[in-house]
Design a protein that fits this description.
heterodimer; A: 220 residues; mainly alpha; Cytochrome Bc1 Complex, Chain D, domain 2; 2 domains; elongated; disordered N terminus; B: 439 residues; two-stranded antiparallel sheet; 52% helix
């Protein structure tokens, strides 16, 4: 009996602590189906910290669930036609790799108005805040955040940049001001963005086509 | 309120005053020497051609431009180096090759600039005066949500106390009058009843009233208890304080995502929201996409927070390289949903086309560190499912649903029923089925 009382005492202390701790989400008072027995992302899976010892809970909380994929593996692609996007990227992150990508690397997706439009959607989420609506380097991060100005896509520096170099820059980043976007965009998405950048390079028209398609994509 | 005069802003505090004095003193000899036209020309060329890789006073992709001419003195031809660095490297100049190696062999784009233009840029860099800090630009996030108005109960208590005092004094007067009457009639003073005894006496005499009043009090208490029980374990919404745990890095959402600020799309950092069940906590490399170049915040505190990213990623800001010593950031989870309910961000963002703010509140306008805005109760979920119209147009998944409804006679009947209120809600397409979320 005394033993039982002793056991409940720390629980009571914890109860008081939970109520007062602004960082605690509170007590799971019916914990039966609260936690997943299977491993889940962003959940300190395992047991409820209220019912288990601090050491157990701490170990669970500090077990890292985000892992790097094992070396030499290729991600599974549900769509066999897109499996090629998961193969290793052959050009290293170096000035030589950049030049080689510029010379050799070509888009596996044919450039059409549809891919440009799709690329625009991705561009608006991932590029526009720095490069600006039309790729003039006048996004909010630059104008309001005093960020280094990216060159305009249709300016002298970037007007004739080949698609391989655009893709390579998305893959590894460019200079100090632009980081790698490989973690945020799949390789297919990076090609779609590349298409939209080419579209902006050509001043808002499909490269090669010559026809002005400004009305469909470049204007909001 | 308009300022009374401009003098008062200048002398707003001794600190501003000395700062102004300092600026005056510092600017006086400077303006005498600096050729403003050349400076402006240099600044314009710098912004157009150099600023994406160089800073004036700090190393970035390339070296700081300030003092470049002095550093090159007697070591080579700085003009040829700036115009075409690759060609100049081939001449075998020792200092050029040293710089090239020091900055990770990044190749500088050839610059078609005349000697005069290069002179202007270097003049601008050497005489660079940093712009005065625009004071107070850091948005102060007002606390949002939860009960905003002051509770009314202190006033009720005061009124109740006043009533009690009036009632008790009236009772005292009444008792004294009764005693006086009783004494005058020769019965002697009446024994002073306690209020409890008199209440019991009153209740005994007026049974109907007593039962009605106690029934009212009882139902009031039951309702209160019921309402209180409903917010146990609820950490958002209108009734309770929002759950806002502290975070290892005090990331300011207003600054990064606010429309009038940097206006970065939510999905730039939470990029799995469209593809996965989870919106995702951005990995530190996403922070570093910008913070390699941004190492000073808008305030001292902001700079300290940026240093925490460097500590986590092992970034050496002095030399622009990673040391390899990494330390994971342990964020505190804000939105805790039990495992017995399934929620997918992808379904809501990509298919439902719901705005982030619909559930996360004015996170880009009013919150610095994230807080739980929605209560995340089942009532809250299904209320939205009952009201929200399905975005059918051009929405791949629903083309099939729509086709089946139209082709099948039972489907047509159902469709007519759905469209009685002229819209198809999530509820009508099964958004209130138990197994939609609990499986």
């Amino acid at each position: 009996m005394a033993m039982k009382l002793l056991k409940t005492l720390p629980a009571l202390a914890l109860l008081a602590a939970c109520a007062g701790d602004p960082d605690s989400p509170g007590i799971e008072y019916m914990p039966d189906m609260y936690r997943s027995p299977a491993v889940e992302a962003y959940v300190d899976y395992g047991q409820d910290p209220f019912y288990f010892a601090d050491s157990v809970v701490k170990r669970q909380r500090t077990t890292q669930s985000v892992r790097r994929p094992p070396a030499g593996t290729v991600p599974f692609a549900a769509d066999a036609a897109k499996a090629g996007f998961n193969f290793p990227y052959p050009y290293p992150n170096s000035p030589e790799g950049y030049e080689r990508a510029g010379a050799e690397l070509k888009s596996p997706i044919p450039l059409t108005q549809a891919t440009v439009d799709h690329g625009k959607v991705i561009y608006e989420k991932f590029c526009q805040h720095c490069h600006g609506v039309k790729g003039q380097g006048d996004g909010n991060v630059v104008t309001k955040g005093n960020y280094p100005v990216p060159p305009a896509y249709d300016g002298a520096q970037l007007k004739d940049l080949p698609e391989g170099k655009i893709f390579h820059s998305l893959m590894y980043g460019k200079n100090v001001a632009m980081g790698s976007h490989a973690g945020q965009l799949s390789r297919e998405e990076r090609w779609l963005v590349t298409h939209y950048v080419q579209y902006l390079q050509a001043g808002g028209r499909l490269p090669g086509a010559g026809a002005d398609t400004t009305a469909t994509a470049a204007t909001k | 309120m308009p300022r009374p005069s401009r003098i008062s802003t200048l002398f707003a505090g001794p600190r501003q005053f000395f700062f102004a004095l300092f600026l005056l003193l510092a600017a006086a000899p400077l303006t005498a020497q600096v050729d403003q036209a050349l400076y402006d020309q240099g600044q314009k060329i710098f912004k157009g051609n150099c600023a994406s890789c160089h800073k004036v006073d700090k190393k970035m992709t390339g070296p700081a431009l300030q003092g470049a001419r002095a550093r090159w003195e007697g070591k080579g031809d700085i003009y040829a180096w700036i115009r075409n660095s690759t060609a100049y490297l081939k001449t075998g100049n020792a200092y050029a090759n040293q710089i090239f190696a020091e900055y990770n062999k990044s190749v500088m784009t050839p610059m078609a600039l005349t000697d005069a233009e290069i002179d202007a840029v270097l003049y601008f860099a050497d005489n660079y005066a940093p712009p005065a800090p625009a004071g107070g630009t850091t948005p102060v996030a007002a606390p949002v949500g939860g009960p905003q108005t002051a509770p009314a109960w202190p006033w009720l208590l005061i009124v109740a106390l006043l009533f009690a005092i009036v009632w008790m004094s009236l009772r005292g007067v009444k008792n004294q009058l009764r005693s006086a009457v009783s004494e005058a009639e020769g019965h002697g003073p009446v024994a002073n009843e306690t209020w409890w005894v008199s209440l019991k006496g009153w209740a005994w005499r007026n049974k109907a009233w007593a039962s009605v009043i106690s029934l009212l009090i009882l139902s009031y208490l039951v309702v209160q208890l019921w309402n209180w029980a409903f917010v146990i374990g609820v950490y958002g919404g209108d009734q309770v304080q929002h759950y806002k745990p502290s975070q290892p890095i005090a990331f300011n959402h207003t600054l990064h995502a606010g429309k009038d600020n940097l206006n970065i799309n939510c999905q730039y950092c939470h990029n799995s929201a469209e593809k996965s069940k989870h919106a995702g906590i951005p990995t530190a490399n996403v922070c570093m996409n910008c913070h390699q170049a941004v190492n000073v915040g808008r305030s001292e505190a902001g700079t300290a927070e940026i240093q925490k990213i460097y500590a986590a990623t092992g970034w050496d800001a002095e030399n622009n390289r990673y040391t390899g010593v990494e330390k994971p950031i342990m964020w505190n989870k804000v939105h805790n949903l039990p495992d017995h309910v399934y929620f997918s961000h992808a379904t809501h963002v990509a298919v439902g086309k719901i705005e982030c703010q619909k559930c996360h509140g004015p996170i880009d306008e009013k919150m610095d560190v994230a807080e739980q805005w929605a209560p995340l109760t089942m009532g809250w979920c299904i209320q939205c499912h009952g009201e929200t119209e399905v975005q059918m147009a051009g929405n791949g998944y629903y083309d099939e649903v729509h086709r089946r409804l139209k082709e099948n006679p039972i489907g047509q009947r159902e469709l007519r029923k759905y469209l009685e209120d002229e819209k198809i809600t999530v509820k009508e397409l099964g958004g209130w089925e138990c197994a939609k979320c609990h499986y």
